[in-house]
Design goal:
Length: 319
């Protein structure tokens, strides 16, 4: 997977250790745990610094993770909706069969098997549901939602950066389209044991997103949180910045367009020494994906609150 990086022995190390299951525990799960532990270390400290109650940190993190998993699965089903509910004669054939058969139609993803499988996660579903769950918790406990969300932003940025590394080491499907560019780390090739085409250099979109999110974390952790911005300024900034990053990287990813603007490319055979050489030819983007539409929406939401509440201003200092 990392064979375009000229570091002796790194390929064998990654293949043998990083991207394997350790006794049934996937590397993606390990990265999720690492993201959770990092956030559980940062969030209580930030709540204390902002003179908020740190005892709520555990519940905020647990509900955030739970909401992320639930939302990511729900949005994944929406993404493959046309594959789950296949056009067949009669109402029962199209809608009832996937509901009553765990694995769905033969050769197609099933509704229930997709929901309860260990793969298939759409980030923005998790992002929206995670915020929803923790917001409901804060409203129920009559907490200052704006202040607590601001305190959570650095942890969210770091957690996302680590989570995207999990997508990378597990050989997740969020890779980019094929490219002849050779940029160490930002371009890589899947190896034959992957479920994806091998021998084809592709954009390493998980690493790109992870690097950008680490920079966002440094911005919020080292500078923005000390600027005494109005409440929810950090939250609005994160919505805008993250939305811009995801909107941009989606132009490099192999994703289905919700409304195609141009004809999608066709599968072609690209010569490869081993593995499956079938891949898409040319520039792939042919219309905005589900994630891009959500990105645009959260950018607009962030800009709306930024302008409405003048969140670039500082809080008034007490006399």
């Amino acid at each position: 997977m990392l064979d375009v990086i000229p570091i002796p022995g790194l390929v064998d190390f990654v293949r043998a250790y990083i991207s394997r299951d350790w006794g049934g525990i996937s590397t993606f799960s390990l990265m999720v745990v690492l993201a959770f532990l990092s956030a559980s270390y940062l969030l209580p400290k930030e709540l204390e610094r902002k003179k908020l109650d740190p005892t709520h940190a555990d519940w905020l993190l647990i509900l955030g993770v739970f909401g992320t998993l639930v939302g990511a699965k729900i949005f994944f089903v929406f993404e493959i909706w046309d594959q789950v509910f296949v056009e067949t004669p009669g109402f029962d054939g199209k809608y009832l069969y996937p509901l009553t058969h765990f694995n769905g139609f033969p050769g197609r993803p099933g509704l229930w098997s997709s929901l309860f499988s260990g793969s298939g996660l759409v980030f923005y579903g998790g992002f929206l549901f995670g915020i929803l769950f923790i917001s409901l918790y804060m409203i129920n406990h009559k907490l200052d939602v704006k202040a607590y969300l601001d305190a959570s932003v650095p942890s969210m940025a770091l957690g996302y950066a680590i989570g995207r590394l999990g997508c990378f080491v597990s050989g997740d499907g969020c890779y980019g389209f094929s490219t002849e560019v050779r940029i160490p780390l930002l371009v890589f090739t899947y190896w034959p044991t992957s479920a994806h085409p091998s021998g084809v250099p592709v954009w390493n979109t998980p690493i790109i997103e992870s690097i950008v999110s680490f920079f966002y974390f440094l911005y919020f952790q080292k500078w923005a949180r000390f600027q005494n911005f109005k409440r929810f300024s950090l939250g609005a900034q994160y919505l805008i910045l993250h939305g811009i990053a995801r909107l941009g990287v989606e132009f490099l990813r192999v994703n289905k367009a919700v409304i195609p603007f141009i004809d999608p490319p066709q599968l072609v055979n690209i010569p490869a020494k081993e593995g499956n050489p079938a891949f898409l030819t040319g520039y792939y983007w042919h219309g905005f994906s589900q994630s891009q539409y959500v990105s645009i929406a959260i950018i607009l939401v962030g800009l709306f609150f930024l302008a409405k509440w003048k969140l670039w201003e500082k809080e008034a200092q007490p006399a």
